Amino acid sequence: MKEPLRQQLEFGLKQMGLHYPVEVQQKLVHYIQLIARWNKAFNLTAIRDVEEMVIKHLLDSLVVQPFVDGSLILDVGSGAGLPGIPFAITSPEKQFVLIDTNGKKTRFLTQAKIDLKLDNVDIVNQRVEDYHPTVDGHRIYFDVITARAYAAIDDFLSSTSHLQNEGTQLLVMQGKLDERFKGGQYRLFESHKLDVYGLNAERHLLEIKIK
Question: pTM of the predicted model, to two decimals?
Fold first, then answer.
């Protein structure tokens, strides 16, 4: 089953103007097969069919990657690792932190990191509001912070404010476009309509930066 899935993925990527080596595509397929396997006990996603996962998990995440501008990325509310794991597989030169409060999901992410040999990923089981990373006593700020399934933009902005500096890029993935947020110190940098091959639904990306 792995090769037909890889071919499906490769075709979809080409339609979206994205190109990754075969070994990278194979690792992406391995990842959704892990989700499918763990899903039976851990209920990681409502999607059960792996062919559907190629579209709704892999292509739907990777369509955003061209907008990611930075080398240290935080994926908030990562769940089953979306979009963080696909990003990490296709950008091994960048560093990723995947944070989620659900212990079952972070256990899956930890095992996926091991199975996929992702040395560029750290998994955090914690509320993002309580996450205060440091290196040698110095506070860490992220180049990019992503959210794929956050309830409200204002909540996302406020809960991650301590992890942002003036250069931080905030990427909010949405279905129907909703640009409403209080603003404050933020400005809407740009909204992007996304075309996900095989997905018959609206997809948008909000790119937000500090004023």
Answer: 0.95
Q: Mind listing the pLDDT tens digit for each residue in 18-55?
A: 999 999 999 999 999 999 999 988 889 999 999 999 99
Contact 76, 146 (CB under 8 A): yes
What gap in Å lies between CA 184 and CA 187, rounded to an integer? 8
Specify which residues 96 forms β-bridges with.
73, 121
pLDDT over threshold 90, residue 183 = no
Instruction: Express each pLDDT in 83-133 by its tens digit.
Output: 999 999 999 999 999 999 999 999 999 999 999 999 999 999 999 999 999
Residue type, 22: V
Name, in order, each residue with C-beta under 8 angstroms of 49's C-beta and a sequence gap of 6 or more.
Answer: none
Q: The CATH number of the domain where 196 resides is what?
A: 3.40.50.150
Pairing of strands 204-210, 134-135: unpaired
Domains of the chain: total = 1
Distance CA 150, CA 153 (A): 7
DSSP alpha helix (H) spans, 20-102: 22-42, 50-53, 60-62, 84-90
**DSSP sequence for 134-158:** EETTEEP--SEEEESS-S-HHHHHH
113 secondary structure, DSSP code: H
In the block, tokens 């509310």 appear at 77
Q: What are phi and psi of 129, to 5 degrees?
A: -65, -25
Domain that holds residue 109: 2-210
